[in-house]
Amino acid sequence: MKNYYQVLGINKEADEESIETAFVTLLRKCSDEEFTVVEAAYRRLSQSQLKADYDEYFNEPEEARDICLQAIELIDAHRF
Fold first, then answer.
1. What is the mean pLDDT of each run of 10 residues along the chain (80 residues)?
2. Is this structure's pTM higher than 0.85?
3. Which CATH code is given to the segment(s) 4-79?
4. In this structure, are residues 45 and 56 in contact, taking their beta carbons and an 8 Å threshold?
5. Which of 23, 25, 40, 65 has its CA 20 to 30 A from that of 32?
Protein backbone atom coordinates (compact mmCIF):
# COMPACT_ATOMS: atom_id res chain seq x y z
CA MET A 1 0.00 0.00 0.00
CA LYS A 2 1.37 3.39 -0.99
CA ASN A 3 1.86 6.09 1.59
CA TYR A 4 0.46 9.13 -0.20
CA TYR A 5 2.55 11.51 1.87
CA GLN A 6 5.69 9.73 0.73
CA VAL A 7 4.47 9.68 -2.86
CA LEU A 8 4.18 13.48 -2.84
CA GLY A 9 7.26 13.96 -0.68
CA ILE A 10 5.41 15.91 2.01
CA ASN A 11 4.61 15.46 5.70
CA LYS A 12 1.22 15.09 7.38
CA GLU A 13 1.15 18.73 8.39
CA ALA A 14 1.41 19.97 4.79
CA ASP A 15 -1.19 22.60 3.90
CA GLU A 16 -3.21 22.72 0.68
CA GLU A 17 -0.69 24.97 -1.04
CA SER A 18 2.22 22.65 -0.19
CA ILE A 19 0.25 19.64 -1.43
CA GLU A 20 -0.55 21.36 -4.72
CA THR A 21 3.05 22.53 -5.18
CA ALA A 22 4.35 19.01 -4.60
CA PHE A 23 1.82 17.61 -7.07
CA VAL A 24 2.69 20.10 -9.82
CA THR A 25 6.42 19.54 -9.28
CA LEU A 26 6.00 15.76 -9.53
CA LEU A 27 3.83 16.03 -12.63
CA ARG A 28 6.76 17.60 -14.44
CA LYS A 29 9.02 14.70 -13.48
CA CYS A 30 6.87 11.58 -13.37
CA SER A 31 6.48 8.93 -16.04
CA ASP A 32 3.12 7.77 -17.34
CA GLU A 33 3.24 4.78 -14.97
CA GLU A 34 3.86 7.01 -11.96
CA PHE A 35 1.15 9.51 -12.92
CA THR A 36 -1.70 7.32 -11.66
CA VAL A 37 -0.18 7.03 -8.18
CA VAL A 38 0.76 10.72 -8.00
CA GLU A 39 -2.72 11.75 -9.11
CA ALA A 40 -4.38 9.41 -6.58
CA ALA A 41 -2.22 10.85 -3.80
CA TYR A 42 -3.11 14.40 -4.81
CA ARG A 43 -6.84 13.67 -5.05
CA ARG A 44 -6.85 12.08 -1.61
CA LEU A 45 -4.73 14.66 0.21
CA SER A 46 -5.94 17.85 -1.49
CA GLN A 47 -9.51 17.53 -0.20
CA SER A 48 -9.78 18.11 3.54
CA GLN A 49 -12.41 15.45 4.30
CA LEU A 50 -10.71 12.80 2.18
CA LYS A 51 -7.38 13.67 3.80
CA ALA A 52 -8.93 13.36 7.27
CA ASP A 53 -10.36 9.93 6.37
CA TYR A 54 -6.98 8.83 5.02
CA ASP A 55 -5.17 10.06 8.12
CA GLU A 56 -7.63 8.25 10.40
CA TYR A 57 -7.19 4.93 8.62
CA PHE A 58 -3.45 5.33 8.17
CA ASN A 59 -3.01 5.37 11.96
CA GLU A 60 -4.70 1.98 12.40
CA PRO A 61 -2.63 -1.15 13.13
CA GLU A 62 -0.80 -2.24 9.97
CA GLU A 63 -3.09 -5.08 8.87
CA ALA A 64 -6.31 -3.15 9.48
CA ARG A 65 -4.78 -0.05 7.90
CA ASP A 66 -3.89 -1.93 4.71
CA ILE A 67 -7.42 -3.28 4.38
CA CYS A 68 -8.92 0.19 4.91
CA LEU A 69 -6.53 1.86 2.48
CA GLN A 70 -7.28 -0.74 -0.19
CA ALA A 71 -10.98 -0.02 0.26
CA ILE A 72 -10.34 3.73 -0.02
CA GLU A 73 -8.38 3.21 -3.24
CA LEU A 74 -11.21 1.13 -4.72
CA ILE A 75 -13.74 3.80 -3.81
CA ASP A 76 -11.52 6.53 -5.32
CA ALA A 77 -11.08 4.52 -8.52
CA HIS A 78 -14.84 4.37 -9.02
CA ARG A 79 -15.62 7.90 -7.85
CA PHE A 80 -13.52 9.77 -10.42
1. 88 93 92 89 92 79 68 72
2. no
3. 1.10.287.110
4. no
5. 65
